[in-house]
Amino acid sequence: MKQFYFSEYEHRKPYRPVPFSAGRQFLYQYLATINIAMGVWYFHWRWFYSLNTEALWFSIPLALAETLAFLSTALFIVNLWSNKDELVKPPPAMVSEIVTEKERPPEDRPISVDIFLPTYTEDPELVRYSIRDTKAVRYPHPVDIKIHVLDDGKREEMHAVALEEGVNYLTREDNRGFKAGNLRNAMELTHGDIIVILDADTRPFPQFLERTLGYFRDPDVAWVQTPQWFYDIPEGERLESLLKRKIGARAGTLGTFIEGIFGPVNVGKDIFGSDPRMFYDCIQRRRMNYNASFCCGAGSLHRREAVLRAALLRYMDEVEHHAREASRDMDDPELAEAVRLGAARGFMSDTEVTPYKYHVSEDIYTSMLLHADRSREWKSIHHAEVLSKMLSPQDLEAYLTQNFKYAGGTLDLLRRDNPLTLPGLNPGQRMMYFASTFSYFAAFWMIIFLITPPIFYFTGLVPVKGFDLDFFIHILTFQIISQITFMLGTWGVNTLRNVQYYVAFFPLNIKAIWTVLKGKTIKFKVTPKDSSDQARLDLVVPQLCMIALNVAGILWYLGRMALGYEYDLMGFIIATFWSCLNMSSLMVIVRAATWKTDESRLL
Question: How far is 582 from 603, CA to CA, in rounded Å?
């Protein structure tokens, strides 16, 4: 087989889910309750007693940004409230074991499973790795498992690989609907009771099916999602080794001393922030508490009946909506009814029943529609154990491409089917789906947080009445309890890179919001699996400008102090500390823009 860069990482093993602890969960809930209460106390003070009335143009936007950030934090606290893992069930053998009594076929038969490997531009030899690992999946019963390569690239090379590996090859005349359309086409050509969706680079472990199919013993389970684990993420280089290699032995000794105080420091670890463990092991896993864990595509299993049922119900709703809109302003009831029926027939003749919506984020969209189907009360399962491995973006452009697709597709839900108003969702599901979309609006309050220190440097104005004892009591108490709560809620998971990229992604998220507001379609673009060795500072111009603005502001204020102008020392210390925190997050993405493949191979 052809060798790729990831061949040297084959030995890596996935993380294990953080074990549940009832004591830790109780402590988290206790502190989370205090955190919410203290938030109300803090913002009461913030709005009524701390605003600088001489600079309300500065003070009010910052207070509003803090308030919106706290709302996002509150949604996150609720998300992490409780752990509700589903027990793994024995793998079923027959169809009668995964359906209701009414749905049992007259003659029982083994379960049939269709495994989809959608591909477009990926190297066929890379897809071969996924095919072979999929073929190696074991199962304790003689069920009918079929593997299908879904090639939207219509490539002879891919067809040849599929034939050589003895798997089915499917393609179509056009690429309408992107990946969603590709999956829809495959559904029409296959008949499996359970559908497994992988990506072209997803390599399932042998126990993939035997650890997940048991969940479908509950006939209300619509899909099961497993974590996506990127096994090729740079592990970084120890600080001692890096300093010794770059500067010399004495510098290496300094690195050893620093690590002796702070523990191991891995420079360059997960440079692109690709590690999704916080999302899967914290966010998705805890959403099981609300039956709101959604499908993320690769590594998921679906009950065919559920996907088709969701498509049919949605189609009926769209027909009714179209007919109602066509006859809305008519006073004559008979004429309105005639127009309504005509509009319905016209819509039905021009529109297909679509198993997967033509949407760039088809996974979360289909999940939301299934959760909204109150006639069946579908359940979703998040299986916390890693059961497959995937490849991560290998340069910043690829990573930004992937995340723009996620951001735009998720935000587009607000325009198409707002989770706050979509009929059928329960309160917990509404809250969780809304939290997924609302988190991207952090870009707006993040800009305010980033420019607040420079405003102080260049104007001398402060956004609060003063830095007195009352200020420190409120802000330090609130921040300390917030950080402790966050630490307990994400216990056992390294969240530093997530926090840094949460700050640094403000330009990308604003671009995604603007694209959706203009009504533009979020174009599907396959995430590149290769990398570029060129520095791409053009991708981080806004971040570089923000860093330059903060550095210039600090130097400007230092110059004023040196020349004897009036200054606020406490304000300068706080603003500089704030600037350093902001710039440390922004520098991570700047460093990623200059990261080279050769450099990552050294780590």
Answer: 27
pLDDT tier for residue 348 given thresholds of 50, 70 and 90: very low
d(CA 332, CA 176) in angstroms, rounded, equals 40
pLDDT digits (tens, 9 = 90+) for 9-51: 999 999 999 999 999 999 999 999 999 999 999 999 999 999 9
Q: Which two tokens stand for residue 182?
A: 């590709």
Query: What distance in Å separates the CA atoms of residue 527 and residue 516, rounded to the nearest whole number?
Result: 20
Angle CA 100–105–107, to nearest 5: 135
Determine which helix (DSSP H) or strand (DSSP E) holds 120, and give its type and residue range.
none
Strand order in the sheet with 300-303: 168-170, 144-151, 112-119, 194-197, 300-303, 221-225, 379-382
- Which residues, including other chains, have CB under 8 Å from residue 57's CB and lie 6 or more apart? none
Instruction: For residue range 404-420, list pLDDT tens digits in order.
Output: 988 888 888 888 788 99
Residues 6+ apart with CB under 8 A from 321: none
User: Does the pLDDT value for residue 567 go beyond 60?
Assistant: yes
- Please compute the mean of the pLDDT values over residues 254-280 and round it to a whole number: 84
For 138, counting Cβ atoms within 10 Å of its Cβ (0-12 exposed, 13-18 middle, 19+ buried), the class is exposed
Q: What is the pTM of this model?
A: 0.88
Residue 122 has pLDDT above 80, yes or no: yes
Phi, psi of 533 (to 5 degrees): -95, 5
C-beta separation of 195 from 301 below 8 A: yes
C-alpha distance across the termini of the chain, in Å: 25
User: 522 or 104, which is more confident?
Assistant: 104
Cβ burial, residue 112 (10 Å; 0-12/13-18/19+): middle
The yes-or-no verdict on residue 601 having pLDDT over 60 is no
Q: Give the model confidence (pLDDT) of 331-345 as tens digits.
A: 656 555 555 555 545
Secondary structure (DSSP) of 449-513:
HHHHHHHHHHH---SBS--SHHHHHHHHHHHHHHHHHHHHHTTTS--HHHHHHHHHTHHHHHHHH
The token pair that represents 354 in the structure block:
């679509």
Report in angstroms the alpha-carbon separations of 261 from 256, 258, 264, 554.
9, 5, 9, 29
Specify the long-range contacts of residues 136-141, CB closer than 8 Å, at least 24 apart: 136/206, 137/204, 137/205, 137/206, 137/207, 137/208, 137/209, 138/206, 138/207, 138/209, 138/210, 139/91, 139/209, 139/210, 139/213, 140/91, 140/210, 141/91, 141/92, 141/93, 141/110, 141/111
Q: Is the pLDDT of residue 351 over 70?
A: no
DSSP letter (8 states) at residue 394: S
3-class SS of residue 221? strand
Q: Which residue has the higher pLDDT, 329 or 101?
A: 101
Counting residues of the chain whose pLDDT is more than 90, the rounded percentage is: 66
The token pair at 530 is 């290769």
Residue 190 and residue 146 in contact, taking contact as beta carbons nearer than 8 Å: yes
Single-letter amino acid, residue 133:
D
Q: Are the beta carbons of 183 and 293 closer than 8 angstroms? A: no
Amino acid at 139: Y
